Each structure stands twice: as structure tokens, then as C-alpha cells.
Amino acid sequence: MPNRANAALIQLRAWLAQEDVQSESRLPPERELCETLGVSRGELRKALDVLEREGRVWRQVGKGTFVGIRPVDEMATLANVASSSSPGEVMRARLTIESILAAEAALNAKQAHLDQLKLCLAASREATSWREYETCDNRFHRALAEASGNQVLLALFDLLNTIRRTVVWSRGRTRPESPPADHHSFAEHDRIYNAVADRDPEGARRAMYNHLSSVQTELMQINEAAQ
């Protein structure tokens, strides 16, 4: 029997190679595949077990067997990352990714991007509550990410932003008053914008890093006060 099972595995490998089955393709039903390979259903299942352990195929009850590695449940993975991440980890990731985005924006921003950033700066100063300000702040950082012209970095920004809202803001930032006129982020955002508008990637990177460092300090103070 072991020899027959091994033979079934060899035949299945050969069939996959000969048919040039593409990743994510669904294999024929077991009965049809057994007839094609000339093996029993038990032998076929043992062969599929081996390929599944190797990451060549994956099976889902009620749907069949598919070629390739089992897809990751994106939302479940995101939830796992968020639940196991600390505010410090999120801020360190922001310091890295958003500093790069600022530098890329200085190199690639078009006038429309600069105009959008200007609008975000003005709106943030006119905010009458912290919630309204944070909405404007999010728009500014998202507009800057778009100005980078790099879709991969933009996708990373969006992923990180989703985690950030879960990890950081869930720790409580309820303040009744609106941002003061001398709120540090206003001047810091201005410096980021000016560096981007001046096509100064190093200046933009440094301005963003300094801004997020200030935000990190502020969040730590808020968390300590809430404890």
C-alpha cells in the first residue's frame, strides 16, 4: 500500500506539472481526479495531504481543493496585529513609514497635491473640537501619503492607519476643549508642507520625524494622565 500511495503522489505531481495548473485554480472533483490518475480516493487523499503540508495545495470543506498556499484572512490578521500591538510600536512604525512618505512627497507631489495639503492645514486651524481637528489631521497625513506617488507605500499607510485608530485612539483621548491656537502640530505641519513645496526631501523627512516624535510625547502624557 505504501508503494501505491507513493505512486499516486508521483502521478499527482506529474499531472499538476503537465497541466500547468495556475495558482488559486481549483482542482477537479476527487472522483474525476481519481479516474484521470487511475488511483483510489484514499490514495488520492493521502497524496493531497502531502502536497498540502508542502504548501502546494489547500482544501476547504464544501468548496474543493485549490492550488497554492491558503490565502490569509486579511481582516483576521489585521485584528490580530492590532490586538497584539502597543501604542509605542505603532508610533515607531509611523516614524519610519511616514517620514519616508514625506520625503517621497517632496520629490513627487503635483500642484493639486500641494493645494489639497494647504486646504487641510487651513481646516485644522479652524477646527472647533478635538474630534474635528483629528479628522483634519488624518486628512493631512493621508493627502501627504497620496502625494508620494507610491501606491505600495500608500497601501502601507492605510494599513497602519487602521491599526493606529484601534490601538492608540481606543486608549482614550476625550478632551472637551478645542486645540489651542499655539498647538504644536500647526507649526509642525507647516514645516512639513513647506519642505514638500520646496522639493526638499530630507527637510520633509526630518520635519515629519520631528512632528511624530512630538505626537508620541503628547500621547504618552495623555496615557499617563488617564491611568
Question: How is this structure best described in words?
Answer:
This protein has two domains: 2-67, Winged helix-like DNA-binding domain superfamily/Winged helix DNA-binding domain (Arc Repressor Mutant, subunit A), CATH 1.10.10; 75-226, GntR ligand-binding domain-like (Four Helix Bundle (Hemerythrin (Met), subunit A), Up-down Bundle), CATH 1.20.120.530. The chain has helices at residues 2-19, 30-37, 41-53, 74-84, 87-108, 111-125, 130-147, 151-167, 184-197, 201-226, and strands at residues 57-60, 64-67. The protein is mostly helical and 227 residues long. A hairpin with a 3-residue loop joins β1 and β2 (64-67). The mean pLDDT is 87. The protein contains ten helices and two strands, in the order αααββααααααα.
What attributes characterize this protein structure?
elongated; about 230 residues; single chain; 2 domains; Four Helix Bundle (Hemerythrin (Met), subunit A); Arc Repressor Mutant, subunit A; about 70% helix; mainly alpha
